[in-house]
Structure prediction request, 527 residues.
Amino acid sequence: MPGKTAEEMALDQKEISVAEFFEKNRHLLGFDNPAKALITVVKEGVDNALDACEEAGKLPHLKVDIEEEGKNKYSISLKDNGPGIVKEQMPSIFGKLLYGSKFHSRKQSRGQQGIGISASVLYGQLTTGKPAIITSRTDKNSPPKRFKLKIDTVQNEPEILEEEELEDGFEPGTEIKVFVEGKYLQRYHSVDEYLKQTAIANPYAHIEYSNPEGEDFDFKRAAHELPPEPKEIKPHPYGVELGVLGRMLKNTDSNKILSFLQNEFTRVGRTSAEEICRLAEVDPDKKPGKLKHSEQEGILDAMQKVKIQRPPTDCLSPIGAELIKNGLEKEIDAEFVTSSSRDPEVYRGNPFQVEVGIAYGGELEERDTEKVKVMRYANKVPLLYQASSCAITKALEKTDWKRYGLEQPGSNGTPKGPATIFVHLCSTWVPFTSESKESIARYPKIVKEIKLGLQECARDLKRHLSKKQKGKKEKRRKKIFSNYMPLVLENAVELTGEGEDLSIDPIMQRVIDEELVEKVEEGEEDE
Ligand SMILES: Nc1ncnc2c1ncn2[C@@H]1O[C@H](COP(=O)(O)OP(=O)(O)O)[C@@H](O)[C@H]1O
Ligand SMILES: [Mg+2]
Prediction:
């Protein structure tokens, strides 16, 4: 049988719409099973709400409401008090995949790909056939707008079913309501847990949540100020790739390569720019668009060789050691909490920073024999899945926890004990291992920083545990004495015939101080 010809095969070629692609590959975006899908929808909505509030300089107040609408069917509604969205943008934001304001920006934010919320709308329409309902109001002086919409997956364009202006009665901000197939669980991987972890890492947010069982949660604020807004930065010359450089050269407004280097990159001044041109043997006055391929390679190469200051770090927005402590303390009733925030570092030209917290004992005591609970975060967003491939897990397992007082089965692995370990990585570009943003790629530089952060907190934990151990010893000593002392006193009184009102406490203290107990204890152990 003859095979197909190139001409016949040509007839089968077709462009694939990104919406169709993700319709078939929804697992890539975190919709691989109903339980996870429910969390993903909440996560995408909450990420956006927090990003929008912070960008607008408003203390976030979120309301999340999930209701069961039938077997394995839920409605999810998310309301924020953010800046709202202008009417013209509403359909594209929610009805078009890969549409957003953050993809091209080099600034720390929760969203980066422009695919989060529209993917939730897509998932909803796929599994329930229902449109999403979006309501938004930008300020008190303009009426709230509401759209009912679906995504035309072939075109990757919004399909507006209904559009209306509401009467008053909707506070400024945005509300999104989607209907999805899902499964509500109450275990570690749950919306309840996701929101609790979000509240810990974002203690300046107030989150109200009502779960499908009708339980209400109120995660109150532990801080009343927003962290400083991160600044946007230009790319740093270290780690830029040839294709990116080529595009920048083509699109720049600068008309000389010398000014191009200074204007389009961070930390490149006149001296470094001249040095780059000299090393690359390119005329500094040459038009950027006129550079030959070999000259572009030369510039790229020279950029890696010239000594250039690290990128600035005010583009990062860490949580800060104090807020991490506040966040952990407000949601976990622990006996001891410590935290640390490391100095910023750089991987492939991207600044990043690691923060760690440990909560120990108290209400966690009941999980004494279990593995510690690890809360992983990237840009203040909890990561619940794919722990095993994550840089945070790797760093945790490579740490020698026995040295710090926690049990660790085998030479490395997750430690055991009544502790919760919190790790946050923030960066202008988090290297996620997939589009669903569940785990951080294991760049050695990142793993190393996390490990150092863990060790910093672990040392505090160790100090606490030693103190506790000492306290326990003291208590035991006192107990031995209160058992024996009356007997000793009785005999002493009998022997001397006086001191009926001899008080026991000062004597006990003296004996303890003189460390006589040590001897008694040693004797006990010998038995
Ligand atoms: N609640 C909201 N308030 C204001 N703007 C929003 C809100 N949700 C989404 N947006 C805007 O819509 C864009 C697209 O959102 P999304 O699809 O989640 O992608 P990403 O968050 O990765 O940019 C965001 O970049 C933001 O500009
Ligand atoms: Mg988003």
